[in-house]
Structure formats: structure tokens, C-alpha cells
Write a structure and sequence with these properties.
transmembrane helix; 10 helices; transmembrane; membrane; mainly alpha; LysE family translocator
Length: 208
């Protein structure tokens, strides 16, 4: 494998393993609906990478990057979506207070809902667009298709992200007896809600 691809893989792996909104959504949804919920959410998150790669390749990312209005709109939508997810986590936290059993059963799994949550959380993240716009060109040659190369790099990122998030899901599911305890579920809902709301507020207030 060429040295530049190894460099890309190392950088993208470190980025993927850094806790952020995507990590919290995978954890939150795995706790909510089990392994299927977490894995499908991960599929949605990682699928969003191809959107960023395509936007970067055709230059739309440049428009968003240099247009204050477009950037602000995208940033606001992404921030509001994170706030909405955080609100739902807190809603689950408060609803659990009325549950008297020691363990809480996972909620029904809905494929499209989980896929959509993961996909939108990634696609509506302006930081991901800017990262792809700034990072991918370093590994792209003008001698061949820019779009093809961008999609290939996104595929590598997709594989790395899927593997890492699958490990997270497996770790959570392996501790299922612990995870289903009411007190633990409430704590995780509160933590994920706090983190997502904090990320949303930070994104909303962050200067261009």
C-alpha cells in the first residue's frame, strides 16, 4: 500500500476513535434498542461519509466554506439536530423514573429510524464537510478521477468507522446485564443527552 494511503488510514483511524457526536449516538442507540439499533445507526453514520466525499469532489464544500450564509444555515441545522437528539435522551431519562422494575427492556428496533438518525447526524455536521474539503485533497491526484478517488478514500473511512463502532456496540451488548439496569440506563441517557446538547450548543455558538 502506498505511503500516503497508510498516512490517511492512520489519521482517519485516530479521528474515528476520538469521542464525538457519532460515538454518543452509537452508544445511545445501542443502549436504547440493542445491537441492531447500534449497528444500523453506525451504518447511517458511515454512509454519510460518501455524501461528504462527493460534495468535496464537486466543489460544493467550497461554496459552503466560503459562503457565510450557507455555512451558518448548515451549522444551525446540525446544531439543532444534536439538541433534538439530546432532548430525546433526557426524555428517556425522565420517562424511566416512572418505571418500577429493576431492569429496563430495550425499545422496539426501527431500521429506518436508526438509519436516519445516524445518517443525518453525520451529514448535518459542517465540521465533517470542512474536514473532507481540507484533508482529502492531500491524498488525491489530478491525473485521475477526483470523484473516484474521493469515494475510494470515503470507502476506507467507512470501513474503519464501521469496525470501530461495531467494537463499541459489541462492548456495550457484552455488558447487557449491567446496561439494562434502570439506574445505569438513566445515567447513560443523562450523559449522552448532556454531551449531545453540549456539542449542539458549542456548534451553534462556534465562530466561523
Amino acid at each position: 500500500m502506498p505511503l500516503d494511503l497508510w498516512t490517511f488510514l492512520i489519521a482517519i483511524t485516530l479521528l474515528t476513535m476520538t469521542p464525538g457526536a457519532d460515538t454518543m449516538i452509537v452508544i445511545r442507540n445501542t443502549v436504547r434498542g440493542g445491537a441492531k439499533d447500534g449497528l444500523v445507526s453506525s451504518l447511517g453514520i458511515c454512509s454519510g461519509l460518501f455524501v461528504h466525499a462527493t460534495l468535496s469532489a464537486v466543489g460544493i464544500s467550497a461554496i459552503l466554506l466560503y459562503s457565510a450564509t450557507a455555512f451558518t444555515i448548515l451549522k444551525s441545522v446540525g446544531a439543532l439536530y444534536l439538541l433534538w437528539l439530546g432532548f430525546n435522551s433526557f426524555k428517556s431519562f425522565w420517562n424511566a423514573k416512572g418505571v418500577h422494575q429493576k431492569h429496563i427492556a430495550p425499545k422496539p428496533f426501527r431500521f429506518l429510524s436508526s438509519l436516519q438518525e445516524g445518517f443525518l447526524s453525520n451529514v448535518l455536521n459542517p465540521k465533517a464537510i470542512i474536514f473532507y474539503m481540507a484533508f482529502l485533497p492531500q491524498f488525491i491526484s489530478h491525473e485521475s478521477s477526483v470523484l473516484g478517488q474521493s469515494l475510494f478514500l470515503a470507502f476506507l473511512h467507512f470501513v474503519v468507522g464501521t469496525i470501530w463502532q461495531a467494537i463499541l456496540v459489541y462492548t456495550i451488548v457484552s455488558a447487557n446485564g449491567f446496561i439494562t439496569k434502570k439506574s445505569v440506563r438513566q445515567s447513560l441517557d443523562a450523559i449522552s443527552g448532556t454531551v449531545m446538547i453540549a456539542l449542539g450548543i458549542t456548534l451553534f455558538l462556534e465562530k466561523r
